[in-house]
UniProtKB/TrEMBL annotation:
Keyword entries, A-Z: Cell membrane, Membrane, Transmembrane, Transmembrane helix
Protein name: Lipopolysaccharide export system permease protein
Organism: Deinococcus budaensis
GO BP term (any one): lipopolysaccharide transport
Coarse class of the protein's main subcellular location: membrane
Localization terms from the record: Cell membrane
Transmembrane domains' residue ranges: 16-41, 61-79, 100-119, 270-289, 296-314, 326-345
A Pfam entry, by short name: LptF_LptG
Membrane topology value: Multi-pass membrane protein
Location of the region described as Disordered in the Swiss-Prot/TrEMBL record: 226-245
Gene Ontology cellular component annotations, sorted alphabetically: ATP-binding cassette (ABC) transporter complex
Matching PANTHER family: SLR0882 PROTEIN-RELATED (PTHR33529), YJGP_YJGQ FAMILY PERMEASE (PTHR33529:SF6)
Length: 348
């Protein structure tokens, strides 16, 4: 295909791409503003505080706009060219349809590189500051992080708490939903205290259950020796930079569910940036089969909607172990690569 023709197609696509990035940025920021303006007004937030909140979200919003604008640009550009019979003229002149698609991957490889760096460093840093930005508006301290489903296996007992929270950062933490299994008895209590200096768990209102006997309410406090250390819970994977996330996975810390989430997040930081290239190929092959602008606009809605459904649901399957985390991260790309391959076969 002549270089001049390639430049013309790329120029048309990139013109729509710039419009798409602006459109998706406006839509996402408008949505964020509509859900936040009430709190800003109620708590008399200053313009600086409001901008700080949006600043924490900006890297993530930018990444989504950069990727979602690709099918918007390619489909509308090819829809316009089909409507004006430009593509028909190219095909009549002997231009192979697929030769219009492959060059589209080149500029969006640069977009993928930008989104990869942004997702690995700026997005986690922004999301980690989000709570501080909001609680600065509320005028209160950020709540202390809690740890859910804490479990510790000692040589002679099993300790479980539904939630561990340490409000002041001192040596004593509060426990909710306590269970202690030792020997042939099970002790349950609605709450308790963990004194890490004395290495004890103390529970009140405990029920003791033994085989062949009815549960018995213990009137006084029960104290258990517990030698584990009180560690602050790990931040969510989305708030951790890529190097730190790799280090956390290498350390083998966390529950199986937390490690699945970490592995999915790490794989997604490679897969999601490459979505821009995959979108360019899939949208390019689809765009060559469209006949007018209306069909192109409808295809954009279907394209983005299908991707969003896969992008939202696949991490949940990875979290519960229904899908391997790496497969879940790459699932949207694999689906759209399959679409691109089928459509390319039709255009060959």
């Amino acid at each position: 295909m002549p270089v001049t023709l390639t430049r013309s197609v790329l120029r048309e696509v990139l013109r729509w791409y710039a419009a798409g990035v602006a459109l998706f940025l406006i839509l996402q920021l408008t949505d964020a503003l509509s859900t936040s303006v009430g709190a800003f007004l109620a708590y008399n937030a200053t313009p600086r505080q409001a901008l700080n909140v949006f600043g924490t979200l900006a890297p993530n919003v930018l990444n989504q706009a950069l990727v979602l604008s690709v099918p918007f640009a390619v489909l509308l550009a090819f829809g316009r060219m089909q409507g004006d019979s430009e593509l028909k003229a190219m095909f009549a002149a002997g231009v192979r349809p697929l030769s219009l698609v492959w060059p589209l991957a080149l500029p969006f490889m640069l977009v993928g590189a930008l989104t990869y760096l942004n997702a690995g460093y700026l997005v986690p840093a922004g999301l980690a500051r989000f709570d501080q930005a909001w609680f600065a508006i509320y005028g209160g301290p950020v709540p202390a992080p809690t740890q859910d489903n804490y479990t510790f296996a000692a040589p002679d007992a099993l300790f479980y708490a539904g939630r561990v929270h340490n409000e002041d950062g001192g040596p004593v933490a509060a426990l909710d939903g306590v269970l202690v299994q030792r020997g042939n008895e099970t002790v349950t209590a609605p709450s308790g205290l963990w004194d890490t200096a004395a290495q004890t768990w103390t529970v009140q209102g405990a029920w003791i259950t033994r085989p062949g006997a009815d549960p018995r309410l213990e009137p006084g406090p029960l104290v258990f020796a517990q030698t584990d250390r009180l560690r602050p819970p790990s931040p969510p994977a989305k708030q951790v930079s890529t190097p730190e996330l790799r280090a956390r996975l290498a350390s083998a810390e966390g529950t199986p569910e937390e490690r699945r989430v970490d592995r999915h997040q790490l794989a997604a930081r490679v897969a999601d940036p490459l979505t821009a290239v995959v979108f360019a190929l899939a949208a390019g092959t689809l765009g060559l089969l469209l006949r007018n602008r209306a069909a192109a606009f409808a295809a954009v809605v279907v394209f983005v909607g299908l991707f969003y459904v896969l992008w939202i649901t696949a991490p949940q399957f990875a979290r519960v172990g229904a899908l391997p985390p790496v497969l879940a991260a790459w699932l949207p790309n694999l689906v759209f690569l399959t679409v691109a391959a089928v459509l390319a076969w039709r255009l060959r």
